[in-house]
Task: structure prediction
Amino acid sequence: MEIGIVGLGLIGGSLAKAISQNTDHTVYGTDLSEQVVRKAVLVDAIEQPLTDELLPQCDIVIVALYPQATIDYVKEHAHLFRKESIVVDCGGIKKLVCDTLIPLAEDHGFLFVGGHPMAGLEHSGFTYAKKSLFNNASMIFTPTKGPIESMEKLKELFTSIGFTNIEISTAEEHDRKIAFTSQLAHVVSNAYIKSPTALEHSGFSAGSYKDLTRVAKLNEVMWTELFLENADNLAAEIDTLIGNLQQYSTAIRERDAKTLCALLKDGREKKALIDGEIF
Result:
């Protein structure tokens, strides 16, 4: 197949490297940075730059941009996508993107599928892209009506580059769950590191500190867009967390060992239940 990748940052660049090095497909790529495109060609991540002339040849186009930029790109190039080709995005929210682009795709004769690769690093950009980024990761699709062969084609492509779990979801379900599993974690990490004590952590921190602060080093422009486009779901998760933390704070301030122990036990048991452990 001929595959176009729009956006060669961490995710798009890693997809380009993984597909080029693990499959026989031909990969074209484009990015706002001409330097990144030249580097991608140099390291054999892409065969050549993706142009408007090559776009109609692509069987699959992967758009690895921020959500609004994805919408803008697909709208601007809708007339160029080959009939019955597949366009899939990689953004962290799905309802806004899918609600806008699915009807557009139907009008132009191609298939749009919402996608979200559950992989990443605390760094961004093509410099950090690597073909192994998706090893043992989950890929979420939020498809609409379309030929089953199209989803089989996507499943085959993404499993060939390391994904071991393919999830099918609605856009609404995706955004609700991702508010907890991803977005809330970034908010917590980013807020946690703001304690004045963080400046004094050297020599007093270990694995738990590193785990909790890893994603505090985020891309604030991207995450602002993602948070605000999923505001209701994320705000609800933050409010739930604040309520839970308040219970711990009250028990600790009041030296209420019984309540505190019960809260800790409940949290431990919930984690074990989620992990499928028997206790």
In short: Residues 271 and 277 are 9 Å apart (CA to CA).
